[in-house]
Amino acid sequence: MISSFLSTIFSLAVISVLFFLIHSIGKKLIKRSFAGARAKSSTVSRGRLETIYTLSQNIFHYCILFFYLYAVLSIFGVPVSTLLASAGIVSVALGLGAQGLVSDVVTGFFILLEQQYSVGDDVKIGTIEGTVSAIGLRTTQIIGYDGTLHFIPNRSITIVSNMSRNDMRVLVDIRLDPSKDVNEMKKIIADANEELVPTLEDLTKMPQILGTVDLGSGDLVLRVVAYAKNGAQYAISRTLRDRYLDDLKEHGFNIPTSPLSLTK
């Protein structure tokens, strides 16, 4: 019994070390291969390469884990092949969640095939908004704008809003000064645009003054719309708004901080 026990422990140690080395070497080879691909590729986006890289790492990890468990069970004398071929075990596995696992993998495959999003994209999935940090066989990892890391099962992803594929809208609303002429306000903003736009490199479409917009309950604003590269819309929106408010203040405009009421 002691001899058999020591033999089993020795076999487990050898198998564990062997699979650890295979796992480490394999991950390093994958990392080195994709490092070369990043340096040479000019047709595939960096986000796409990062997505394939993380997926390859996941597939390799799960394959090694499967064969390691197979080897460990074999050392203990468990007839793994017989168990896998047994219809009863398959039924139990399906009942314990294999259906969900298959659904995760299939959904993840179509997400990659259709290129719905890549690592580094800003997306909205359900109620979660953030940046895609990893795409795995089972889950997609999203880092929220507050720093929270979300793990989303692929099967629960039904609607994806990708905010990194097209230019994003920059919307600036400035409240009206009821004692001033709206046309004068438009002219001041137009002059500010002529001076400011050449300094905004991420702006892709010139700001357009749409005119007066009623936001409801008598809340009137002068709306300006522009377009910027994805990710830069918030900074440009703040820059435009600050410049508009400063110029209007210099010309004697008193911009209200509360909605205007037309009933008073």
From TrEMBL:
<dbReference type="InterPro" id="IPR049142">
    <property type="entry name" value="MS_channel_1st"/>
</dbReference>
<dbReference type="Pfam" id="PF21088">
    <property type="entry name" value="MS_channel_1st"/>
</dbReference>
<dbReference type="Pfam" id="PF00924">
    <property type="entry name" value="MS_channel_2nd"/>
</dbReference>
<protein>
    <submittedName>
        <fullName>Mechanosensitive ion channel</fullName>
    </submittedName>
</protein>
<feature type="transmembrane region" description="Helical">
    <location>
        <begin position="59"/>
        <end position="78"/>
    </location>
</feature>
<dbReference type="InterPro" id="IPR045276">
    <property type="entry name" value="YbiO_bact"/>
</dbReference>
<dbReference type="InterPro" id="IPR011066">
    <property type="entry name" value="MscS_channel_C_sf"/>
</dbReference>
<keyword id="KW-1003">Cell membrane</keyword>
<dbReference type="InterPro" id="IPR011014">
    <property type="entry name" value="MscS_channel_TM-2"/>
</dbReference>
<dbReference type="InterPro" id="IPR006685">
    <property type="entry name" value="MscS_channel_2nd"/>
</dbReference>
<dbReference type="GO" id="GO:0008381">
    <property type="term" value="F:mechanosensitive monoatomic ion channel activity"/>
</dbReference>
<dbReference type="InterPro" id="IPR023408">
    <property type="entry name" value="MscS_beta-dom_sf"/>
</dbReference>
<feature type="transmembrane region" description="Helical">
    <location>
        <begin position="84"/>
        <end position="113"/>
    </location>
</feature>
<keyword id="KW-0812">Transmembrane</keyword>
<comment type="function">
    <text>May play a role in resistance to osmotic downshock.</text>
</comment>
<feature type="domain" description="Mechanosensitive ion channel MscS">
    <location>
        <begin position="101"/>
        <end position="165"/>
    </location>
</feature>
<keyword id="KW-0472">Membrane</keyword>
<feature type="transmembrane region" description="Helical">
    <location>
        <begin position="6"/>
        <end position="25"/>
    </location>
</feature>
<comment type="similarity">
    <text>Belongs to the MscS (TC 1.A.23) family.</text>
</comment>
<keyword id="KW-1133">Transmembrane helix</keyword>
<dbReference type="InterPro" id="IPR010920">
    <property type="entry name" value="LSM_dom_sf"/>
</dbReference>
<feature type="domain" description="Mechanosensitive ion channel transmembrane helices 2/3">
    <location>
        <begin position="58"/>
        <end position="99"/>
    </location>
</feature>
<dbReference type="GO" id="GO:0005886">
    <property type="term" value="C:plasma membrane"/>
</dbReference>
